[in-house]
Amino acid sequence: MDYGRMIRDSLALAWRHKSLWVFGLFTGWGTTFNTSFGKNDLKSLSGGELGDSPYGMFGQDPSQYMSLLAPFLVGMVIFAIVYILASCIANPAQVDAVNRITRGGTYKFSESFSTGVDFFWRILGMYIVGFVVFLVSMGVIGACVGVAFVITPILGIISLLPAIPLFFFVILALTMIFYLAQRAVVVRNVSIADSLQEGYALFRNHLGKNVVFFLICFGLALGIGMMVGLAMVIIYLPVGALAYSLGAPVWAAFLIAIALALPVSIPVGGYFGTFFSSLFTMFYFGLVEPSGPQAGFVAVAEPTQGT
Question: Looking at CB atoms within 10 Å, which of 3, 5, 233, 246 has the fewest?
Fold first, then answer.
């Protein structure tokens, strides 16, 4: 399997079909941007240096800020729900678009969006199944380690030796199985149970390829996230620091920095979200059709009318 060609063609596809960036914002594996400030650069929200108050950066009892934090937390919950629901449309829409493009068909944003809506409930159901399986798997591993520690601390420490690699393998296995199953749902138009069965079969029968592909994607996501995140910090951190130095409270300076990052972070996140989604779809084709469309990708073809 030519992983290098898959990466190149996925990058080209994501760049040429920019309308897919809308879906890419909600398809996972995107880039996140974080800003960190040094302790000596922060003052409390009420004024004064850190350490001047037993309450640290708040300067006062943190409970006084709960009324301010509550709307923020509610907003985060609403955002998470909206994001999950949007991803239930964006993921199948991306798969449909890449399926059409790599097979030389005609891709239109409206048609792929319609496909995403059609598969909404199946993808949502798959999310629920995946979440439950993840919780059960982690619960079993955690329970075994906990029992070992109850018996004796030495046995508990020893149990961590197989538990830690098992934990990461479960993450790898569930990620690959469910990502492959998502593609089976859309490409083959099958049920959740049949798609999960296919995803598991593709993972089991091609274990080595799945492990290599997962590690490649993890390395790409980590490297891209670090480089783009560093670039963003260099760009907007000075502006946030300037706002803070002019008297703006910490939270206001932080929000200003985030706002300045949005015009760049949104298209960048959409592009790389599209890239990773396309890469997984091409990998799926490489497993089920080793001599099929993916052997001669047309991902670099010019966008068709309506894209």
Answer: 246
Look up residue 290 and give its DSSP letter. Answer: T
Distance of alpha carbon 50 from alpha carbon 25, whole angstroms: 37
Contact 268, 225 (CB under 8 A): no
264, 67 contact by CB (below 8 A): no
User: For 302, which DSSP code?
Assistant: P
The kind and range of the H/E element at 165 are: helix 153-188
Residue 43: strand pairing partners: 49
Distance from the first to the final alpha carbon of the chain: 29
**Each residue of 210-240: pLDDT tens digit?**
999 999 999 998 888 888 778 777 767 776 6
SS3 call for 43: strand
**Over the stretch 233-275, which tens digit does the pLDDT of each residue have?**
776 777 666 666 766 666 666 666 667 767 777 888 889 889 9
pTM here is 0.76
Using an 8 Å Cβ cutoff, are 88 and 124 in contact? yes
Residue type at 156 in one-letter notation: G
∠ CA 230-236-242, rounded to 5°: 130
